Amino acid sequence: MFKRLLILGLFAVAALPVLAQDYPKFELGGDFSYVRANTTFKNQCSGCTIEGITIPVGSTSQSADLLGGKGEIAYNFNHIVGMVADFGGYDVTGLPKGTGAAATLFTYMFGPRFTYRGSERFQPFGEFLVGGSHISASVSSSGTGIAGVPYYFGTSGNSFALALGGGFDVKVAQHVAIRLFEGDWFMTRFNSTLNSAGRPTAGTQNNFRLAAGIQFRF
Q1: Pairing relation of β-strands 102-115 and 200-202?
Q2: Beta carbons within 8 Å of 152's beta carbon, 6+ residues apart
Q3: Single pTM value for the model
Q4: DSSP 126-180
Q5: Domains of the chain in sequence order
Q6: Integer Cα distance of 113 and 77 in angstroms
């Protein structure tokens, strides 16, 4: 009898850290995501030309809708503070059909997340992420192109990226939560200005990012 009680006691002591842990150490998530990209193109170069055409000095703004998804992994230091690695991939929608135009955006950001776990079921959070983004765009013809010759034009660029925002998760099972909403101010710094010397320089793009999906907790 004493031996059995001793064994039960050892199991109880070993389980105390687990019972005391009221938060998951690791979280893995997958989300559907939408980005509203806003870009202002500026030309500060008087007399600059492209293909012999003079570019007027001034600025013009354009917006685009991007659809895709993102995944993340988070490590929680305690029940409030965690560190997040966030990776996303998006396609630009609404491009002219029949032109072979395509554009994609990839993001990779890291930073702290602060979660309020006052309720076991409903848990809001805020986060601040920094990292980078990569955009690529192309125009191609798989059939008859210019003068009967198939063509392909492509370009790409890299940029600093920042996301500031938050959202809330709802726990639906012991190791599963649904991310009902996540919203971020998503800033990038792609080249969008032609300076007075005719050289492309970085501009600030103030974008918005929304996401919803599922989280697995361990």
Answers
A1: unpaired
A2: 138, 139, 140, 141
A3: 0.83
A4: EEEEEEEEEEEEEEE-SSS-BTTB--EEEEEEEEEEEEEEEEEEEEEETTEEEEE
A5: 25-217 (2.40.160.20)
A6: 10
Q: Residue 75: what pLDDT?
A: 98
Point out which residues pair with 5 in neighbouring strands.
none
Q: What are phi and psi of 77, to 5 degrees?
A: -75, -35
Nearest to 74 by CA among 127, 18, 132: 127
* 8 Å CB contact between 115 and 24: no
Per DSSP, what are the bridge partners of residue 111?
A: 84
pLDDT digits (tens, 9 = 90+) for 169-185: 999 999 999 999 999 99
Q: Would the pLDDT of 7 be above 80?
A: no
pLDDT at 164: 98
